[in-house]
Amino acid sequence: MGGIQKKKFERGSATNYITRNKARKKLQLSLPDFRRLCILKGIYPHEPKHKKKVNKGSTAPRTFYLLKDIRFLLHEPIVGKFRDYKVFVRKLKKAYGKTEWSTVERLRENKPTYKLDHVIKERYPTFIDALRDIDDALCMCFLFSTFARTGKCHVQTIQLCRRLTVEWMNYVIASRALRKVFISIKGLYYQAEVMGQLVTWLVPYQFSHDHPTDVDYRVMATFTELYTTLLGFVNFRLYHSLNLLYPPKLDSKAVSELKEDNEDDYAMNSECYIEKLSALSASLARVVSTAEEEEAELDQFPVDGEDMEKMEAREKEQKWQEAQKKLFEGLKIFLNREVPRESLAFVIRCFGGNVSWDKSVCIGSTYEVTDETITHHIVDRPSIDKQYINRYYIQPQWVYDCVNAKILLPVEDYFLGVTLPPHLSPFVEEKDGDYIPPEKLKIMALQRGEKPAHEQEEDSEEEDEQSEDEEDEDDEEEVDEEEDAEEENLKKMEEQKSRGKSPQVKVTPGKVKVENPARLEQEEKAEEKRLAIMMMNKKEKYLYDKIMFGKKRKVREANKLAAKRKAYDNAEKAKKKKTRK
Amino acid sequence: MHHRLACNKHHQKKTKKKKRIMAAARRLKRVIASQPGFLNLKSTSDPADLVSSRRKRVNKNKKKNWNKHSDINDVEEFLEDVRLQERTTGGLLSEKSDDSLFFLDIGQPKKTEETAAEPVERKRKKKASRPLRIDLILQHDSLVPPPKDVLAYQQPNAKKIRRIAQKAEQLAAKGVVPRRQKQLLKRRPVAKTTKKAVTEANNNPDREYYDIWGLETKDSGDPWYLQQTGKKLVKRPERLNEKPSVLPAVEVIAPGGSYNPDIFSHQALLQEAHEVEVKKQKEEDKIERQLAVNKADTATEETIFREQVEGLVEEENEEETVHNEDEEDVAVGGIALGEKKTERQRKREKAVRIKEQQRLAERRQTGQRQQLFQLRSIKVSIRQQEQKTKAKQKQRKAKQEAQKAQPRRLGRLKFQAPDLEVQLSDELAGTLRRLKPEGSVAKDRFKSLQKRNLIEPRERAKFKRRYKLKYVEKRAFREIT
User: CA geometry: angle at B152 spanning B147 and B156, to 5°?
Assistant: First the structure.
């Protein structure tokens, strides 16, 4: 009781926050400058928990910053530079008004600029921190590099973005880090694994810009300013990690190969080099020229038992990945002029393929159409006049699908004029029990090394697979399931009979049923499981039933979808037949 | 002063000299004109015309009057004529040879043969070689050559400069370097590189990068000194390295957004987009419904009439209401009145109160004694309560987690999710070549920044004119109409 009366809004959350305008006044900056500073330093507005308390009793929506953050900004040297710039602009205007050209020139020479190096170092204390945040930087740089060189932003920014993205792509090629590609209606999504970090970025299609009006380009340009600095430093570090020269240089061998007489037709001398780099067709020069990177082998540790198994699995995985990296090795691919050159060249080179294009499309083509050793010719038109016998003419989706499937897919589905199989998103990861489209199942089968067969067999395969899945889920009913499967087969045969088709008659030699020890073991395990279930108390049993019910429901739904798909496919087939007739 | 005078004198002398020379020329020309061989281009004006008015008498003993009243028309005309001749023919006609003035007329040249030989080609050539009319107009048509610019050939102090140059050459041959040059050479070269680094912009496409993470921070001095002079960078608080949202930087489009999608995933995406649209439509409909005019509120003839008549017809209700109000006032006043309690009453009430308190205390005590036997059920209830709070905590935490992925309210405007990029089944292109990109990546990135709470949602500033535009009809325009 008694004491001095507490005043409102002088302690607690009201003192922790500051409104944007107050912060701006405290820093003596204009609003655009304040915004820039916040973006560069990574200070973001904060939504207070109790707005009314913070806003002195008012509930009007406002932008708040944490007071401590703003205090931190007060120490930033860039703030001083912003103020200098303001003064510089004022002086320049004055000089212009008085037509004092010498003054204008002098001022221009001493234009205040600032560096963001310390900001980068401060925001990303380690290299890995920077790599984790590189997604945004890549997206932004790729976006800006495709902008037309009109007044939307500085031409220099566009050039810098282009340079950095080209460097990045060359790094991904050199390190063979690309993992996934997805052609969407919005743009191209790429995913690469760089130093153990998954990096995803989005590249817009070329020439697809209509500048939307509700985008604040000033804000975007500020982000880009920060991200170009970041990406440059990251590129530098990445290049050095691969022993590559940093401002990237083409291999001396490649340089001599690419030397052409009519270089001047493509670009000016100064731009020629970056154009060649951006063609992505040549490898880069290394600091220490090694003939071939020796394969780094996993260290062997003496281990026993379970660890051994894990170790083996890991080794297998490693080998599989290595093989995947050499997916297109040995292939000689030629790009026709209507396909997206940069994207395809990038993807193909990422997996070790040779790629070339017509001389008039872009600089840096390495061989011509007439080359007899070309294995694949990528075309995106219904038919082509002059065809060579010893090469496949395929549609561009083949390349992307191969990358996502991690194997070379059969080319038959991708020939000219053939309706393409759907391009599935590699970013979807199905859990067991989810519906998986039949195309993916096919690819999975191919990955396991099974040969693609005729369609009828395929269907049965699918069903087998599903039954297999079910088996995995509930082993307890394994035996019943098998019987079910047999019954199903019988039913199917009957159906086929009733439809009037002659059932496929196969005479198979009888087999002696051998007591399979593995099988016995499995049965034993199943028995154990059943007993364990029996021993569960009420609560656990309830939970278990619930989980199993959920799983079954999922399977049921997936089955429903699969049936639907089958019906759809059949309908499509029927339609096709009709049209053929 | 002296100098100026001298100058003036000099000037006068010069003008006099000029006059003398001009007069001589004039005389010469007049002499020529008087000769019988001279040809006038213009017919001389009638002398009677010149002396049409009455002759004026003027004093000729003043120079001013000489200039004013002497008739120099004939001279002027003559000179004009000479100039014309010079301009058109390049000299006086009288001095020209006959050959240059006359030619022998042989009749029509034989055109027909030549034209027959190459009629088409010639025509074309002529057309090509004919100069533009504008060039013809602008052509220099006088035959008098432009006067030489004497100043272009003259150089002030030419002799002196020549001499200096000769001497310098001699010295250079000997190998002697002049002092001025020696000093220039002695001067240290300005470190240009440092200046360049200062003025290099961040977006310079050729900028250099270095290993920023590899370098150890160089301790360039006493930390105390750096701190006190404000040169030490303040350590960034850890809190700032947390991201304001858990959303990934790049959200990959749903599998239905493939350029050649699987049918089910495409349908699923369409369904999603459809639901969004339906929701929007519902909201719009709701607003429309709320804004709709109520039929009962519209004016009918009856209501209009009543409104017009209102106040004209006296009503008796008013008086009644006034009466009612008076009564209420009385009632309110009555509350304040109360009878005083007697001493006895007070005592009794107090006793009752104490008794009640005692009873309650006793009851509480017995209750507590009884609770000893209810320990079990109490324990159960406590446990239940704890469980409940735990569940609630969990729920709250889950909600908070979910909130982290949501865009926050950071300003005046709420975040508005961008439209889903969707292509209908008939818009889908079968091949990559015919693919029509949907949506804009720039917008996608911008919205992503907003969604991750990095920037607050804003709308484009509207252009507001400070003063009204005034329409003024221009004069040129008015003349036409």
Answer: 135
Which residues from chain A sit within 8 angstroms of residue B241, using beta carbons?
Answer: 123, 129
Selection from A80, A122, A72, A79 nearest residue B217 by Cα: A122
Out of A143, A182, A381, whose CB is closest to B258? A182
Q: Which amino acid does the sequence have at B446? A: F
Q: How far apart are CA B195 and CA A287, in angstroms?
A: 31
Name the token pair of A96.
């212009």
> Looking at chain B, which residue has its C-alpha nearest residue A338?
B433
As a whole number of angstroms, the distance between CA A294 and CA A253 comes to: 21
Torsion of CA B31, B36, B38, B42, to 10 degrees: 100
Task: Using the predicted structure, report yes or no on whether residue B143 has a pLDDT greater than 50.
Answer: yes
- The model's confidence at residue B10, banded by pLDDT at 50, 70 and 90, is very low
Minimal C-alpha gap between A229 and chain B (Å): 8
CA-to-CA dists, residue B246 to B233, B240, B401, angstroms: 29, 14, 9
> In DSSP terms, which residues pair with A19 in a beta bridge?
A64
State residue B317's pLDDT score.
58
pLDDT computed for residue A281 by the predictor: 76
- Total residue count of chain A as it appears in this document: 581
Alpha-carbon dihedral sign for residues B86, B88, B89, B93: negative
* Nearest CB to A420 within list B248, B260, B408: B260
Q: Encode pLDDT of B90-108 as tens digits.
A: 888 888 888 888 888 888 7
Whole-model pTM: value is: 0.67
Q: Is the alpha carbon torsion for B270, B271, B275, B281 positive or negative?
A: positive
- DSSP codes, A178-226: EEEEEEBSS-EEEEEEETTEEEEEEEPPTT-----TTS-HHHHHHHHHH
Neighbours of A19 (CB within 10 A): 16
Q: Express each pLDDT in A315-331 by its tens digit.
A: 888 888 888 888 999 89
CA-based nearest distance A389→chain B, Å = 24
**Is A232's CB within 8 Å of B408's CB?**
no
Among A62, A185, A424, the strongest candidate for a mutation testing the B interface, having the largest count of B CBs within 10 A, is: A185
Q: What is the ipTM of this complex?
A: 0.79
State residue B459 phi and psi, 5-degree precision. -115, 160
Cβ separation of A209 and B442 shorter than 8 Å?
A: yes
Chain A residues whose beta carbon lies within 8 Å of the beta carbon of residue B456:
45, 63
- Residue whose tokens read 């004939």: B74
| Alpha-carbon distances of A518 from A313, A467, A478, rounded to whole Å | 21, 20, 15
Nearest CA in chain A to B197: A113
Q: Do A208 and B437 touch (CB under 8 A)?
A: yes
Rounded average pLDDT over A419-445: 84
3-state helix, strand, coil in chain A (%, to 5): 55, 10, 40
Rounded to a whole number of angstroms, the distance between the first and last alpha carbons of chain B is 66
Burial A321-359 (b: 16+ CB within 10 A, else e): eeeebebbeebbbbbbeebbbbbbbbbbbbbebbbbbee
